[in-house]
Amino acid sequence: MKNHVITISREFGSGGRTIGKMVAEKLGIPCYDNELIQKIAEESGFKADYIKEAGEYAPGGFLASAFSHRNNGTNNADYLWEIQYNTITDLAQKGPCVIVGRCADYILRGKADCLRVFVHADMEFRAERIVKVYGERDESPEQRLKDKDKRRAAYYRFYTDMKWGDARNYDAALNSGTIGIEKCADLIRDLYERRKSES
Amino acid sequence: MKNHVITISREFGSGGRTIGKMVAEKLGIPCYDNELIQKIAEESGFKADYIKEAGEYAPGGFLASAFSHRNNGTNNADYLWEIQYNTITDLAQKGPCVIVGRCADYILRGKADCLRVFVHADMEFRAERIVKVYGERDESPEQRLKDKDKRRAAYYRFYTDMKWGDARNYDAALNSGTIGIEKCADLIRDLYERRKSES
User: pLDDT tens for residues B17-61?
Assistant: First the structure.
C-alpha cells in the first residue's frame, strides 16, 4: 500500500512552511523541510546553505554559472536533483509525512498517495510577513519576493516540465492571505483525514 | 458594506455548477447560473442559447466570425459583455449569492467581498462525468473537454487579461475529482462562513 503524503509547494513568504509544520503537528506525522535539506547535505557532501540556495536555481538559465561542472560531465544542480529525488522517494516509503517544497509532488507521482497543496498569497501579505519573519534587507521585500518567485518557478519548470502555480497541478491551492494560516492548516488536515479514511 | 459573494470558475465537466448550487442551498442564498443567462437574455434581446455559447468565444480570435458587427461598431460579444458586466454588478449589490462562471470574479473586484473559487478535475474524471450528465455526442468526451477548456480560457484571458486556472487568481482552487463534489461544497461553505464571521 502507498503511504499518504502531503506535499506543499508555496510562494515565498506565504507561510507554506509554517502551515506544513502545523499540519504535521496536528496529525502527529513528521514534516520534512530543513530536515530534508540536512539529509541531502549528508548524502551529497554539500553544505546545507548551498543546497537551500541551489533548490531555487534552474540549471541552464542565466544563473547556470553558479554551478561548477563535476568531473563526470553532470553539473552540481543535476547531481543534487538526483540525491533529492532519491531522498524524497525514501522518506515517502518510510511512512506518512508532510514534505515542503523541492518538487516533491512531482517526484512522488505514482509512488505515494499524495495530497498536493499549493499555498500562495498576494504581494502585500507576503511582503509584510517576510519582514516580520526574516527581518529587513537592503533589497525591498517586494524585490526579494519577485526574485524568489521567479527562481522557484524556473526550477520547478526545468525539472518537472509543469507550470508552477497552475491550479490544475494540485488537489487544493489556498490563499493563506485571505484564508489565514491556521485555517489553511485545518483544511489540509481535514482533506488528508478524509482521503485516508476513504482509501 | 459590501455583500459577500462566492464566485465559481470551473473547468467544463468538473461539477463546478453543481457545487455552486449545493453551496447556495446549504447557505440559503441564491445561485446564479442559468438565471444569470436568462437575465442577460432579457436585457440584451438575444436568445439564452446564443448567450450560453457566446460566453465561451473570445472576440478577435479565429471564431470572431461567429459575431456579426452591430451598427455602432461594437460587436455582439462586446455588447453582451457590457450587459453581463452590469447584470453581475447589480446582482452582487442585491445581496449575498453564488455566481457561476462569466468572469464574475473579475467583474466584482472592489465591488463585493468575493470568495473566489476555481474548480477543476483531471480529464478522466470530467470525461466520465460529461457523458453521464450531458449524454454521448459524435465527438469524443476528451475532444469536447479540450474545446470547451480552450474557449473558456481564451474568453477569460480576453476580458480579464488574467490567466485562467492560475491558482493565484483565487482564494481556493479545488480538484473535485480527488476531493469529491460534496466535500468541495462543504469546504466552500466553511470558508464563506468563516470570512463572513470575521468581517
Answer: 999 999 999 999 999 987 787 888 888 788 888 777 776 666 654
CATH class of B4-198: alpha beta
SS3 A91: helix
**Distance (Å, whole) CA A17 – CA B119:** 25
Q: Output the nine-digit C-alpha cell for A116.
A: 498536493
Residue B194: list chain A partners with CB under 8 A.
Answer: 179, 183
Tens digits of residue pLDDT in B119-156: 999 999 999 999 998 888 888 999 999 998 888 888 88
Name the residue among B155, B122, B117 with its Cα closest to residue B14.
B122
pLDDT of B67 reads 47
Residue among B167, B180, B187 whose CB faces A167 most closely: B167
**A173 and B173: CB-CB below 8 Å?**
yes
Name the residue in chain A with its Cα closest to that of B193. Answer: A179
* Cα torsion A132, A135, A141, A147: sign: negative
| Chain A: residues touching B (Cβ < 8 Å) | 11, 118, 120, 165-168, 170-175, 178-179, 183, 187, 190-191, 194-195
Domains of chain B, residue spans:
4-198
